[in-house]
Amino acid sequence: MTEEQPAMLWKDPKFMAGFIMVVLSIILGFWGKAIFIAKFYEPVGFITGISIYAFSWVLLFIGIFLVGWETVKMMHRRIHHEVKSTVKKTYHHAKTLPRRGYDYTKKIGKKLAEDKLQ
Question: How far apart (Å, rounded) are the C-alpha atoms in residues 18 and 81?
Fold first, then answer.
């Protein structure tokens, strides 16, 4: 896959199945944890909550496998690229702020000095 051509992930059935599994695992994980906490003193609810929670982890790893490490690496590269460009812009913007403040204060001081002389 070239850098110029954007990836069309939604057209890949393996990616979509993996993505749905990851989202479903997050939902099931929260649901299993809620059952586990709410039914802590009831053996059937306790076992059910732990089972759903454990199943959500299995589903998560299967989903990650289907999404593929290449997709994960691509998302990782994209996040780092966006963060790096944002940090670079922020740094250059923050670098110019003290200089502008210094120039503005210097201009005010010169103006006050001129007004005192007159």
Answer: 24
